[in-house]
Fold these 2 entries.
Entry 1:
Amino acid sequence: MKRNTLTAAFLLSAALLSSCNKAEQISRDGSGKPASSSVEKETVAPVTEEPAGSAIPEEERETLPEHPEEKTEETEPLTELPTEPETEFTGDYVHGTEGYFCLADNSVDVELKLQRGGTCWAFASATAMENSFFLNTGRRTDIDPNEVVNRVYGDDKAEGIFLNGMHTAEYNGGCWEIVADCYSSGVNGVYVNEAIEVDMYDIDAVKESIRKYGGVIGAIYDSAGKRQYSHGYLTFNDTKEKEANHELLIIGWDDHFPKSYFKKKAEQDGAWIAYNSNIGEFGYYYISYDSYFENMSVISATDKYSGCESYSADSFFGKKIDTGKETALANVFHRTGTLAAVGTISRKSEQNIKIEVYAPSFKELVYTQEACLKGYGWHTVELDQPLSVTDYAVVIRYEGPAVVETEWKSDASEYRAQMERGQSFVMSGGKWLDLADPDTADRLGLSFEPKNCCIKAYYK
């Protein structure tokens, strides 16, 4: 399966499960180097999950791939640390300050939680949100990855993703996008205000994102056969372009990490330092710069909002409406308060938008602001001037196509959406059409049934 089929694979088939490593414990000593530890750990052996963490096809990312063939990749459990091989590098390596950075050494408390089942996606995303929340607020918050799984797949909701019984929530797999969708509406006072892809081929951009967001989520094909315990470090190097089966969180880098420390000798020195929930408190993963990643992304979380109004629970896997050079969508909300920000999704690397706030009749324009959304993913635009609102319409004019939610169904799960008249609208021929009107899809020439617009209103 190629890169552009990865995230959709979890939607269309959640059958890729594999046994994984139950490792000897590895903890970090004062030098930042893994060392043996005697702390007692759970005996549950984590399982690597089906493909996780990539994005929808880059060419406008509109359609989901067909159901992939089911297959299982076995990962040999790591029950003991292997004997260290002889290497060209003599002596134990200790990093210096030049070309080295790790969040754990810079006041960010990275809790190395151990996953259960196929939940790496939830652990990587939860830790990313915790780290970014600390960087954004100066305060720590605890986000339970198991609660993330329950919120994404639980039945106690009106709309969202529902499982059909093929897999339990713990083993259905997932990806960072569905976590961002869930938390962008706010959970326990925590709001995802940004969740975008990172150019995985731009090392400097990845490093900058680690510093700015508190980590970069990466998707790899995690295999015990590519690991090596070398000079006290648990290392990994796999250059083959394989479909990923595991998400982890990159929290640092070491440009001088010896290339000889990997089971497959790397072409260059240097490694990403990662939190791997398959290993948990056993230590950090040192992944060669040569290794292949399916996808990299960041998630930013904050507590700056008091509430959110939204009709859509799925933004990343919706479909696009394209009315030409500009596509105008609108949601009408009814809540008294101070409107502080507007959120939406972009499927382009860069997309200009214009935000307008109207009276609910769309006849009285009360506010306008332009913005440029940079990066595929979820964006929140802070209003330059917060507005006192009660009944109002948020209009977003997108340069090119715009995304609306739509229902979908797969072998393992389905997305259900609820919609009422008077909630979401699209501009066509100079008139606002209600997306709940059965004739709207035909008038727009759509091959799918559109649901609500992916527009959210955030309150101060």
Note: The first strand starts at residue 18 and ends at 19.
Entry 2:
Amino acid sequence: MGKKISRREFIKSTGLASVSIFLSGCQSLIKSGKKTVMPITSQASSTVSTVEIPSATVSPLIKQSETPSFQTIVALANQRNYQESELKETLIRMLSDIGGITDIVKPGSHVGIKLNLTGGTWWDTPDKPPATEYFVSHPAVASVLAELLLDAGASKITMMDGLGDKTNFVKWGYQNVADRLDIELIDLCEPAPFASFSRYSVGDNYLVYPEFLLHPILNEVDVFISMAKLKVHATAGVTLSMKNLIGIAPITAYRNNVNDNNRSAFHGNSQFDERLPKVIIDLNKVRPIDLAIIDGIYTAEGGAGPWDSNMRQIKPEILIAGKDALAVDTIGTMCMGFDPEMPAGKSPFNGGLNHLLLASGADFGCMDINKIQVVGESVSNLSVKYLPATT
């Protein structure tokens, strides 16, 4: 009997990774470096839709022009469940629509996937939906994405988040994914497998923190993916791919009180917070996002977690993907029925500054919907009017 080889070894030996259609898409791309977001200017092959927003929330500042000159692509899909076979078809199509991933995932790349595993398994009670179909990243999306990354030639994948509950990986299904695909799980609140945390400089244009104490893995990975949930937030307004980076900071280093099980030092005034939105920008400067994926299949409105009394499950049946995190979050905000350019103090940004506008001002990416090409479904077809979070 011949020697058995692993799925990963089979892919490498046959060269299947180099011929998968989703790897390079149907277009040529401007190459992007590890920490630089570059525009994508070529035409995607699938159905192209101009960006629309429900009339009740249209802002004259972001009205679609008649002759747009696109700078970046965001893929938008209708995905009705978490069946992995269907998810795989959808994600392959979406990755192809944004130009493939060979410009960011090179053969031998170490890929990091930042999950959103906020809160803890103590919220899992029989009277509530499963957390993964409610307010945290679903392991099925992460599993399918990891398989596609391995097919693309990634040699190592690390899934990560800063956990407030050490049982999250096991109880929410990620340990099973890790065991099956031979990938690494790292709790960003602990320095292991390194000896200690590292200091990361934000640069001269920091807003709150000139540097952060963070896990060394963030500098080890070649590609950094933010896999967020499509949710609202009492302070940040929306919590999508950029806000997801709050979770890369260790809780013990950024809390006001030793008994706090959250990053309380990141927060300012509880009624109107100017601090947290600026911290989001500082963290995104330290570890820019190469690929943003937002799970809006089953999620929540009215809050970011069960600690928000108005939060309830909602099923938008949406997936969003793109290489420009700001553009992805802009479209995600519109899919929730909100104007992404709404000023601070206006819904959904009632509780603090609009961090999307801050990111745009810092040249993080594209927020101008005249220059964002939405491929696949249209925003107007999939948008759901969310209940905003309250402070």
Note: The CA atoms of residues 2 and 230 lie 47 Å apart.
